[in-house]
Design a protein that fits this description.
By secondary structure, the chain is of the alpha/beta class. The chain has one domain: Oxidized Rhodanese, domain 1 (3-Layer(aba) Sandwich), CATH 3.40.250. It is built from four helices and five strands. It has a five-stranded parallel β-sheet with strand order 1-5-4-2-3. Helix 2 links the parallel strand 2 and strand 3.
Length: 113
Amino acid sequence: MDPHVDGVIWKTHAGELKRRIQRPLPPYCIVDARWRGAYDEGHIPGAVSILPEDLKALPEGATEHTELFVLGEGAEDPAMRKASLALRRLGAHRVVELTGGMVEWRRAGGPLE
């Protein structure tokens, strides 16, 4: 564990997440903390839908070393921070919030499923 980067909740923007999706290593997972109806209307390809209150374990296939990108609907969505804090409590070392959430992702022309 690197004390300089582990245990911190990082923030990034849509352009960086688009770049990161093109690189599978190190492993990453996208956690969509929005309500299921919003997720079903359109989500980032490969994202998993998990409400913060449903986080009882790290997402399937993730380990404490998986980079976890967390997003909500917009900037400062409380669900995004709740999910990030829950993931940290569950042992995640690298949690990264998408600063503008799905609003920013759509504005940046990010792909949707």
